[in-house]
Each structure stands twice: as C-alpha cells, then as structure tokens.
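Inputs:
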Amino acid sequence: MVVLGPGDDAAVVRAADGRVVASTDLLVDGVHFKRDWSSAADVGVKAAAQNLVDVAAMGAVPTAVLVALVCPLDLPVTWAEEFTAAFDGECDLVGAVLVGGDVSRGPTLTLAVTALGDLQGRPPVTRSGAEPGDVVALTGRLGWSAAGLAVLSRGFRSPAQVVAAHRRPAPPYAEGPVAARCGAHAMCDVSDGLVQDLGHIARASAVQIRLETARLEVSSRLQDVGRALNVDPLRWLLTGGEDHALVATFGSASDVPAGWTVIGRVREGEGVLVDGAPYPHAGWDAFGTGTSRT
Amino acid sequence: MVVLGPGDDAAVVRAADGRVVASTDLLVDGVHFKRDWSSAADVGVKAAAQNLVDVAAMGAVPTAVLVALVCPLDLPVTWAEEFTAAFDGECDLVGAVLVGGDVSRGPTLTLAVTALGDLQGRPPVTRSGAEPGDVVALTGRLGWSAAGLAVLSRGFRSPAQVVAAHRRPAPPYAEGPVAARCGAHAMCDVSDGLVQDLGHIARASAVQIRLETARLEVSSRLQDVGRALNVDPLRWLLTGGEDHALVATFGSASDVPAGWTVIGRVREGEGVLVDGAPYPHAGWDAFGTGTSRT
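Outputs:
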C-alpha cells in the first residue's frame, strides 16, 4: 500500500478506493498515560491502537500511520526504541505501515498519531446513520481498562489481567470492516465510555438509544476486582473508556455478525436510556482531567 | 474533496488519483516559535504553511489537513480562535480543508499538523531523482526568515518586512505542481537551510550539487539588515530555514518554469559545493536547540 515511505518531504500511500480515511489523536504524558504506570511498549501499543481503531470504526482497513513525537531531553533512547517496536508491532496486526513523521525536543513527552485507511469501496459507517428500529450491538472488551486504572490508582499492580488491559488496549480492529460488510448503519469505538459514546450516535443520528444492562456480560474477573475495591463493576462497563470496543447499530438482529452481542435498541427520541432511565454518571476521564476523547 | 469532515471517528477525503500524499510536522512552543515573538495568527499561518509546502514539494496539491493541539490550561480562548482563523486562511490559499483533529490539555502548547495531497496523476517528485547534468533551480523567498529572527534575537522589532517574514512564511505552494508538470527530477522545500536541503537531495540521489552564489539575488532589504547587524546576508540565504522556498532539479535549463532561478548544477560525485568548495557552516537551528526539520 506504500508508494513512498519515510525520508522525503511527504509519504505517498495507495488509495485504490479513490477515498482515504484519516484520523489524528494525541497522547500526552500525565494526561493520557503515566510513565510510572505504563512502559514505553505499553504507550506504543496504546498510541497505535487508539488511532487504528478510529479507522476501523468507519468500517475501513488501516493502511498507513504517521507519528509526531515530542521528546524531553532526558528521555532515554531505549524508551523511544521500545515505543517504536511496540508501535510497529501493533500496526503489523492490521497490516498498516509507518510511512512518516516528525521528531522534536520539547518539555513534555507527546505523541500525535495520524492513521489512514481504505474503505474498500464501501460507504463509511458514520455516527449519524442509526435508525429507529435498529438493534445496538457491541464487540470487544469493555470496562477492563477502567478496572485496571482503578487498581493502579489505589496503588496495586494486580490482578495482572486488568492492569494489562489498562496498559494495552486490544481493540477488535477486524470487526469494523466486518460490521460494514454486514450493513451496519452507525458505528463508533468506545473511547469515552459506553453511555457517552452511544450518546454521540444518538445525537448524530437524532434518535434515542435504549441500553439493557442485563445483556452486558460482567466477567467474573471484573466482579472480583469490583468486590475487592468496593465498586459496582457495571459502572466500569458503562462509563469506562479506553478499551476501544466497537459499538454499532444494525437494521435487524439477523444482520449482527457473529462475535457481536446485542445490547439494546434504537427508538425515536433523543439521548440514551439505561434500563429505561437516564444514566446519571459522567463519561470517561482517565486522570480526572476534564479531557474527553473523540 | 471532503467526503466526511470533522465530528466522527475519522474523516474521509477524496483521493481520485488512487494515491494520497501525507506529511506530519510538529510545532512546539519555545522550540519552533515563541509566543512573545509570534501571535496566535502567526503560529496558525506557520503551522499550516510548513505542512502544506511539504505536500507541494512532492509536486502535489494539498487537499486536507488534520490538527492535533495541546493547550495549556492558561491558554486564552482567543489564542485558539485566532490560531484557527489564520490556519484556515492559509489552508484556503491552496484549497485545503480542515477535516479533523484532536485537542488535549497539556503543559506545553504543541501543534502536530498532518496534510494530505493529490498528485493529480503525476509521479511524486522525490529527493532521489536528481541526475548528473541537471540544473538546480529555486523559487520563493530565501534568507528572510533568518534575517527576521536575527533582528528579533537582538531585541529589535523592525524592519517590519523581515520580522513579518520570520513570523509568517509565504511558501510558493503553486510552484510545486508547476515544477512537477515541467518534469522536475527532484524537489524539496528549504526548511533546514539551502545548503543542508540541497545536501538531502545530493545524498538521496547519490550526486554532487554545485551551487553558485553569484546566481542568488541578495535583496537590498537583506543587505541593509546585514549591515545593521554586521552579518553577511548571504549566510542567511545559504543556511536560513523556515522560508520554505522550493528547490528542484530539471533535466535542462529549458525545462525550468518561469519564476524559478537557476542557481547551480548537478554533477557526479557527492555532497554540496558552494562556489566550488565545501561550505563550513551548519544548517538551520532556529533557537539553537539542535532540532532539524525534515
């Protein structure tokens, strides 16, 4: 897919479809990650994942990425090397190639990643296509990253599985194009929290979404962590961001691909109802900073 | 050219050529600009210009841009508004559209801009196509930004023309596609300094470039500033970055478009000779930080 890679004024990437999908996201040290809690490789996975999944959430296949990296002078060279190896490894999972970027010194470690993608001839699956009567379906891990962050925030480092989920999201990239092929009406990734991200679809589509929590599976692992921390784990599923699950609406249950779970319905109206009522809690805000991701 | 603009997980941009040109550049407060010396509008112009010209330097027409902005909490809202207006205005000059981006809080004002472009069916003009026998030609302002920075660095604010040139580059965007249509063999924009950027072409093409300074016009304005600051203004032309002039090689002088000036020749060999000798001075480093732009 790469006509011309890094080293020139710009890269050239094939766009056989005649359109290109493009998304840019930031990761700022202390805002989106903490170097105390996440290794260079963790940040590399996260930086790639959050952008690649934005492309997948349009129903597209990621093709290329560009990385802008601001490095403090005291950043160990090994940090940048480990970051790059993990970043490349995550891109390899979907067949995307690093084609360019920029590096600068600066006081705060900052990453701006741009991902490009190929719609393979299909229309993009936007947030605005949901219709009354649609079913709402989900695929991918939900609440794990928030549970992991809750563990880390209280000074623990285990259970390893939820901590790892916070450090390294594992989005279901391939399911984006699968959903598009199955005729998904609307789609986005869960980066701000399920209720909040369904709210984005509801607003963009001018519909109401009714979520049924009985349909959300709360794994025994999250139940254990919830008991240990005295938190209802359902809250992590409803408000936790950064797992980058995919949520989409389909015209009927028979359109929903294998591996997706129906979790609700689209109706006329507005907003999101959780088990029939508005949900009072705010969305995802990893370090309580007032930052929200789109 | 825009199929889907901001507000979804990703944008969708037309790429009728079947390929897309993509470039990312950083601007970090205190590294690439100083807010004392450059207004929000100045930074907006500069952020757009340095990326749009990277696309033009491939011989492509810029189509779309994405912006990632890290804002300190104390950044006035008016700064972001003025930045955006000026950024949009510069994009308008070339018909490029802001299609997406990301905003985060963070301690250091940082901009990462990605520009996309359309090759209109032509091959990209890379740095590696120069051939022995080519002529080297230049278009656009050279040395003005460095002169303006020299003025500002000594505490002056005039002459206004060179200070403005430092604050707001005015790259000859349209000349990139013009050079490509005229059959340019190699091209890049002058962002690190003429000698250094010609060195990039010489290295990538495995040739030697011989620059003749008698062919470089030193405007009377730069001569005046040079006298006032006791600096040979030719040095600004040879080592000053950030004007974003375009330099290209062509198979013969008759291929060189109107508005371009022949400034040297390509020979077998390596490196860059200035009037027959190696040039001892380093390239551009705006604030003496050891940062170089590609």
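Remarks. Chain B touches chain A through 67 residues (CB under 8 Å). DSSP finds eight helices and 13 strands in chain B.
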